[in-house]
From TrEMBL:
Residues 94-121 form the DUF883 domain. The keyword Cell division does not apply. The keyword Membrane applies. This is ElaB/YqjD/DUF883 family membrane-anchored ribosome-binding protein. It comes from the Bacteria. GO terms for molecular function: ribosome binding. InterPro entries: DUF883_C (IPR043605), YqjD/ElaB (IPR010279).
């Protein structure tokens, strides 16, 4: 139980998914699109072995369309992922500027922990 739970009428903020969860979702979307693309390419290659003339031209057109679609999806999702990362980076910078001693303490603790691990190995 937190202190804000004890205060009557205290508005609770909606919890947002963590940055790692969001990045994992975006990464999974890109992975799914890539797997779908590879599956489509394999199927088209298998089916195109015996094609000739107009059928071959249609298969090539379908392949070009699928490649174009995959590039668009990857670009869009990659841009959204980059934008989300930039936003989180700005939020981290804002936090560091408003809470410099907290960040300094956390950095110091991390440095001591890494130093102890390195020293312990030797």
């Amino acid at each position: 139980m937190q202190v804000r739970d004890l205060i009557p009428g205290q508005a609770r903020k909606k919890s947002n998914p963590s940055a790692m969860e969001h990045l994992s979702e975006r990464s999974a979307e890109l992975t799914d699109e890539f797997k779908s693309f590879v599956g489509d390419m394999e199927a088209m290659l298998k089916n195109s072995a015996s094609l000739q003339g107009e059928e071959l031209a249609r298969a090539r057109q379908a392949l070009e369309e699928r490649v174009h679609k995959a590039k668009g999806v990857v670009d869009e999702k990659g841009n959204r992922l980059a934008q989300y990362t930039k936003e989180n980076l700005h939020q981290a910078g804002d936090y560091a500027r408003t809470h410099p001693w907290t960040v300094t303490g956390a950095t110091l603790a991390l440095g001591v922990a890494v130093g102890l691990l390195i020293f312990k190995r030797k």
